[in-house]
What does this fold into?
Amino acid sequence: MLIFGIIVLLISLSFLMGGGALLSAHNIIKDSEGFYNTKTIQIEKDSYAIIVGPTDINVDVGWDWGWGWDLGDLITFKIEGSGYDPSTQIFLGIARESDINTYLDDVEYDEITDLNVFPFRVDYRNQPGSVVPEVPSSKTFWIVSNYGPGTQIIEWELEPGRHSLVIMNADGSAGIDMDVVFGVKVPLLFGISVGLLIGGGVLLAISILMIYFATRRPRISPPEAVEAPALRETKREQTEVEPEVKKETEEKTSTGLEPNIAALLSYVLGWVSGIIIFILERENKFVRFHALQSILVFGTLNVASAVLSWIPFFGVFFGVVISILAFILWIVLMVKAYQGEKFKILWAGDFAEKQVS
It folds into this structure.
């Protein structure tokens, strides 16, 4: 019950943090029209067009079970552009990828391959060409478009298919220099954030009850009231415990917690909780052993996972294996610590024991 209580506690905290972050975004970042906007992004290239995308949407709207929803009810995008030179007319348009490829065939353009808002970075891939494109506003394949001087805005409701955003000068000339702001509206975001907060609160209450009932001490009768056979059986079982470990688990702790509880907590957040318990606990060798072993075991696994993530294909495979291994060790070590056992993991256990002895 204690192990599952801790797992539920971690899940509840993730729900609460996620719901809180979404609710903060809803109240702080959202503008008066309900859009969450990026900061202004300056785009400057010598080519004829800049392409963002394509986005590949393969959602079947039939999942709405007759509720009358479509993708446009879930997400709406807004693109706002303004030329650096107020006299320059700009063009913004969204169309299917196949139509854009035909329109810009053998035309030099730049495609945005990576856009990071924080830290800000825009990466482009240039597509060379020798043809001057036709005026974009003369084409009829645009799903949504707008052009003219000053600030131009288009809004597009999400729909299935492969679509791209095209940014050009309205006359089709080369040399693009403008500021762009991207925005997205998610009407269900407020309901999702509230749902996460409510769900996190319920799970938090459940986890607290599970941990409480798992760690509370039952009331027992005074020693003279205990039946002799039961007392003898208890003493016989206790003599089977390794004397040194038994002594360490009975010693007081700096944190005021029971030694097995403090040892268990050193594994809850991996090496992070191991460091915290190792710093706080200065007296009990049993607790310090488990805290140091937590630091060594999960710290090593985290470093190995980070290094392997840089290796293509095989790195992903071994990263999954390490994650599964870490989860199994996490459960086993918490159970063993709670049972008062000095369970050692290869070299980490031996090293930890020598350091705390």
